[in-house]
């Protein structure tokens, strides 16, 4: 998606360690108009899939998932929580995922009442690097008996293995921007 690529080039910052900082528009401050355009693009890409629900992980996936849901007929959005709280009641699906950005493992929790067998689920998130977060959501969907009908990613780090692993496993991964290389010294970002 050219609009997202242009925004990354203009406002993104490349940090050492293959970190792409896009907090001015994607994962701290949110550009809702951009999110809406991203949602429209995913709706075009995944049209005809009969999406029942969108599943993401807190926190950065929530905004894009909610904007996208409007383009899928206002389907519900469920976000997996990263911490247990007293508000999480009843039976739960729980798995652990490793975060490339945070460099640690954390639990991913979804209340069973929000994900049912037979539901057709679109997974959405802001970044795809090593694929661990998506694999966690896939595992939860599998445990629930829900069908993953697509995976939408805002920014995929194409030079890392996550996208390839998920595609080889048979998942339809559609990334709006695939970064092929980044240079922290020059600040350049190249796309597929």
Automatic annotation (TrEMBL):
Its main location: cytoplasm. InterPro entries: PRTase-like, PRTase_dom, Pur/Pyrimidine_PRTase, Xanthine_PRibTrfase. Keywords: Cytoplasm, Glycosyltransferase, Purine salvage, Transferase. 5-phospho-alpha-D-ribose 1-diphosphate binds at residues 129-133. Pfam families: Pribosyltran. Residues 44-158 form the Phosphoribosyltransferase domain. It is found in: Cytoplasm. One of its GO terms (cellular component) is cytoplasm. Pathway: Purine metabolism; XMP biosynthesis via salvage pathway; XMP from xanthine: step 1/1. Its EC number is 2.4.2.22. SUPFAM superfamilies: PRTase-like. GO terms for biological process: purine ribonucleoside salvage; xanthine metabolic process; XMP salvage. It catalyses: XMP + diphosphate = xanthine + 5-phospho-alpha-D-ribose 1-diphosphate. One of its GO terms (molecular function) is xanthine phosphoribosyltransferase activity. The keyword RNA-binding does not apply. Xanthine binds at residues 20, 27, 157. Converts the preformed base xanthine, a product of nucleic acid breakdown, to xanthosine 5'-monophosphate (XMP), so it can be reused for RNA or DNA synthesis. Homodimer. Belongs to the purine/pyrimidine phosphoribosyltransferase family. Xpt subfamily. This is Xanthine phosphoribosyltransferase. It comes from Bifidobacterium mongoliense DSM 21395.
């Amino acid at each position: 998606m050219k609009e997202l690529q242009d925004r990354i080039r203009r406002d993104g910052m490349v940090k050492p360690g293959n970190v792409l900082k896009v907090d001015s528009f994607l994962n701290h401050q949110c550009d809702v108009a951009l999110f809406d355009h991203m949602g429209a693009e995913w709706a075009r890409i995944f049209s005809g899939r009969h999406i029942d629900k969108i599943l993401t992980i807190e926190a950065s996936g929530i905004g894009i998932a909610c904007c996208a849901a409007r383009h899928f007929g206002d389907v519900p959005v469920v976000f997996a929580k990263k911490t247990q709280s007293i508000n999480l009641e009843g039976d739960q699906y729980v798995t652990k995922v490793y975060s490339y950005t945070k460099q640690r493992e954390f639990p991913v929790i979804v209340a069973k009442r929000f994900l049912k067998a037979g539901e057709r689920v679109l997974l959405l998130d802001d970044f795809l690097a090593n694929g661990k977060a998506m694999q966690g959501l896939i595992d939860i969907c599998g445990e629930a008996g829900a069908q993953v009908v697509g995976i939408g990613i805002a920014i995929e780090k194409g030079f890392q293995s996550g996208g390839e692993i998920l595609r080889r496993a048979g998942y339809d991964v559609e990334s709006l921007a695939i970064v092929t290389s980044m240079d922290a010294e020059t600040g350049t970002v190249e796309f597929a």
